[in-house]
Design brief:
Elements: E1 8-13, H1 16-22, H2 25-33, E2 36-40, E3 55-58, H3 63-75, E4 80-82, H4 85-89, H5 94-102, E5 112-114, E6 118-121, H6 124-127, E7 141-145, E8 156-160, E9 173-177, E10 184-191, E11 194-201, H7 208-212, E12 217-221, H8 228-233, H9 250-264, E13 268-275, E14 282-290, H10 300-316, H11 328-338, H12 354-358
Parallel strand pairs: 1-2, 1-3, 3-4, 5-14
Antiparallel strand pairs: 6-9, 7-8, 7-9, 8-12, 10-11, 10-13, 13-14
Helix pairs in contact: 2-10
Bound molecules: adenosine-5'-triphosphate, Myo inositol 3,4,5,6 tetrakisphosphate (4MY) and magnesium ion (MG) (2 copies).
Length: 363
């Protein structure tokens, strides 16, 4: 293959575990062959002293990092930051994370979608008094830490069968109704406009009998990330035949993915979906994660390289529509020209339409 004439640098700031799984030779080599160099950012050193980068990818949070990104963008106004820390922040709270699903307006013919009933509890008194929870949330519930910041603690959950099981919980906590879903979860990976849905094992259904048992709760963490061995060793993770599970309708999943992408202004995320077995054609989004384990997605190297190429090429040609930190100015001009403004003045995340491409906007 001929050497690409223009080279781009994509800096990445990732925790060591994430770096190890995401930055595989296969990805680095493919990107390099397309003129994109993936360069590690040393988070121990000031970002402004590193680079230059055409694009910064990151899964690092905190005020200091946000400040560093802002400083970097101010000094390098053409660099893209994927994604904006403010947009990512919304996913760090399990209530704001799912609120966005309820805002989506999607017309589905034969199916419906939503989120499970849930409440957030800040005080122990309220936690131990289910009559104060209001209408809706009933046992069994999954107790999830309110904060979803990627820490091990934020993944520690309990399936609570009855009042007895509430005693071990520590607020602030989200109580989400556990919905029987046949032990299969659908993970939908989004990379820009690309959407891929895969099946994974989940918690098994809870029977009426189980609800009456003496056991109050069951603790678990990152079920869908467990190895088969880990899962089968545990009492509750029985072997489920994933192959038999029917996939959700592709059009519904794609519509939800694109809707979430626009509403959250994020480009790199995944969401977990379950099918309510009581209803059959009702789908519930239960979790949204920023920069998930893409290496587990089929052909992740090609998908990610295509995405990098797409955003870098558009940046070069002035067609960048990323509502990320440093594209803000360009985005506003595009808004003025196209009149396709989002509610807060930012642009939809989808790539430009054919007409827009043929009529490039001057920035
Ligand atoms: N409302 C629910 N009804 C049924 N099962 C659920 C529900 N919420 C969560 N689960 C099960 O618990 C698992 C963990 O929940 P969730 O995805 O919210 O946690 P997480 O720690 O954020 O996961 P991830 O590792 O994907 O970030 C899910 O994969 C699913 O198996
Ligand atoms: O562990 P992996 O790399 O595979 O990715 C997991 C990722 O872990 P990491 O970012 O800490 O590595 C998790 O992020 P945090 O919530 O902890 O931030 C979360 O997004 C999971 O859903 C991902 O698994 P997947 O949903 O793809 O199965
Ligand atoms: Mg999840
Ligand atoms: Mg999660």
């Amino acid at each position: 293959m001929a050497e690409p004439t223009r080279r781009f640098a994509v800096g990445y700031a990732l925790a060591p575990k994430k770096q190890q799984s995401f930055i595989q030779d296969s990805l680095v080599n493919l990107a390099r062959s397309r003129g994109i160099d993936l360069v590690r950012i040393d988070v121990e050193k000031p970002l402004v002293e590193q680079g230059p980068f055409d694009c910064v990818l990151h899964k690092v949070s905190g005020e200091d990092w946000t400040k560093q990104l802002k400083e970097y963008s101010a000094k390098n106004p053409t660099a893209l930051v994927i994604d904006s820390p403010e947009a990512i922040e919304r996913l760090h709270n399990r209530i704001s994370m799912l609120e966005v699903v309820n805002e989506l307006e999607i017309e589905a013919e034969n199916e419906s979608f939503g989120i499970p009933k849930q409440i957030v509890i800040y005080e122990s008194e309220k936690l131990l008094d289910p009559s104060s929870w209001g209408e809706g949330v009933k046992f069994p519930v999954i107790a999830k830490p309110l904060v979803a910041d990627g820490s091990a603690k934020s993944h520690k959950m309990s399936l609570v069968f009855n009042r007895e099981g509430l005693k071990k919980l520590k607020p602030p906590i989200v109580l989400q109704e556990f919905v029987n879903h046949g032990g299969v979860i659908f993970k939908v990976y989004v990379v820009g406009d690309y959407v891929k849905c895969v099946k994974r094992k989940s918690l098994p259904d809870v029977s009426e009998e189980k609800l009456r048992s003496l056991e109050g709760s069951l603790s678990f963490s990152q079920v869908s990330n467990l190895s088969t061995h880990e899962r089968d060793g545990g009492k509750y993770y029985k072997l489920m035949d994933l192959e038999e599970a029917e996939m959700p309708p592709e059009s519904l999943i794609t519509d939800i993915a694109h809707g979430l992408q626009r509403a959250t202004k994020l480009h790199l995320f995944n969401f977990d979906v379950i099918r309510d077995t009581r209803i059959g054609n009702r789908y519930l989004v239960i979790d949204i994660n920023y920069f998930p384990g893409y290496a587990k997605m089929p052909s992740y190297e090609t998908v990610l390289t295509d995405f990098f190429w797409d955003v870098l090429d558009k940046k070069e040609t002035g067609l960048c529509k990323l509502p990320v930190i440093s594209c803000e100015k360009k985005a506003r001009k595009l808004v003025n020209n196209n009149g396709c403004e989002g509610s807060d003045g930012s642009l939809p995340v989808s790539p430009p339409s054919r007409e827009e491409t043929e009529n490039p906007i001057q920035v």
